[in-house]
C-alpha cells in the first residue's frame, strides 16, 4: 500500500511516498530555516506563506522521485496536530484537495506519533510495547507506546521543551537559530566539567521535566561574565550544558523504564539527532542490558516519511478524516489513542 504523506506543522514543507509503512520511496523536505533565522525563530505568518508557495512543487517532486503518479497512490496522510495553525492548514487543505479530487482515503496523523514512528522506518523489527523518550522543539515526553496507535504519556515538561532549551542556550552563546546542532558540534570540542549547572527540581510526577531553570543558569553565567569583563569558553559552556541535559533526560527515562518494567526503549524528535543524547542513552541502555532504538539522522527532524509510516498504522487502525478535517494547535497523544 502506497501512502502520499504531507507534513507542514512548523517550518519544513515535506512530502513523502511510503510503501507499507516502512519502505520510503521518496522523502522531500523544503526547509525555511534560512529565512526564519533572520528573526531568531520561526515566524508563523512567514511559515504559512512559504508552505503555500512550495507545497505544490514539494508534492510533485515526491511523486516524481517515487516514480509514480497520483494514480499509483492508495491513500493521503497529513499532519493535522499539533503545530502552528496557519502552517498546518496549508498541508491539510492540500491533502483534502488531493483526497477529494482523487477519491482516495484521507488519514489524519499526529505529529508526535509521526516522530515516534520514524523508528519503525529505521528498525522495522521494532514492535510496541516500549518506552519512548520524545524530545523535539515543542515537546518533551516520556511515552509508553502501547501499540502502533495508542500511547500513555508518563512524563512531560512543565515549561520549555528540550529543543527549545537547546535553541535558547545556543542563542545566548551566540549561535544561529536553530542552535541545537551548533551546541552539539561545540560540545564535542568543549570540557563538560568546566561549568556546573543545576538539575532542576520538578514538583509532581518524578518523570516530568523542567528546562527553564537550566536555561536561566546558562544565561546568568554568560551575563555575569559579561558584567565582569570575563570570557566564557563557549565550547565548554555548550559541553557542560549538553551533559546536564543528557543526565536529566537519561536519568528520568531510565527511572521510568525501571519502574514500569520496560526493557525496550525508543528515542524520537528533533533532539534525537543530538550525539550526546544518543550516546548517553545508548550507554545507559547497554549498562541495563536493554535494547535502544533511535531513528537514522535523516528521520530525526521534521519529515513526511515519518507521517507516511504512522499514517499506515493509523489506516490499519481505521482512522480516516473527511473534508471537515481541521488543524489543531495543541493535542495530547492520549487524546488520539483509541
Ligand atoms: O522535531 P523537530 O524537527 O521540530 C519540532 O517538532 O519541534 O525538532 C526541532 C528541534 C530544534 O529545537 C533543534 O534545535 C533541535 O530539534 N535539534 C537538535 C539537534 N538537531 C536538531 N538539538 C540538539 N542537537 C542536535 N543535533
Ligand atoms: Zn517535529
What would you say this structure looks like, in words?
By secondary structure, this protein is α/β, with parallel strands linked by helices. The chain has 2 domains: 2-116 and 299-335, 2-Layer Sandwich (Nucleotidyltransferase, domain 5), CATH 3.30.420.40; 128-295, Nucleotidyltransferase, domain 5, CATH 3.30.420. Helix content is 43%, strand content 19%. It contains 10 helices and 10 strands. The protein has helices spanning 33-37, 44-66, 85-102, 111-122, 162-172, 180-187, 212-227, 234-260, 275-288, 305-316; strands spanning 2-7, 12-19, 23-31, 75-81, 106-110, 130-135, 140-147, 150-156, 264-268, 291-293. The strands form 2 sheets. Strands 3-2-1-4-5 form a 5-stranded mixed beta sheet, sandwiched between helices. Strands 8-7-6-9-10 form a 5-stranded mixed beta sheet, sandwiched between helices. It is globular, with a radius of gyration of 20 Å. The model has no long low-confidence stretch (mean pLDDT 97). It binds 5'-O-[(R)-(carboxyoxy)(hydroxy)phosphoryl]adenosine (KG4) and zinc ion. 5'-O-[(R)-(carboxyoxy)(hydroxy)phosphoryl]adenosine is lined by residues 10, 115, 136-138, 163, 166-167, 178, 180-181, 184, 269-271, 273-274, 301-302.
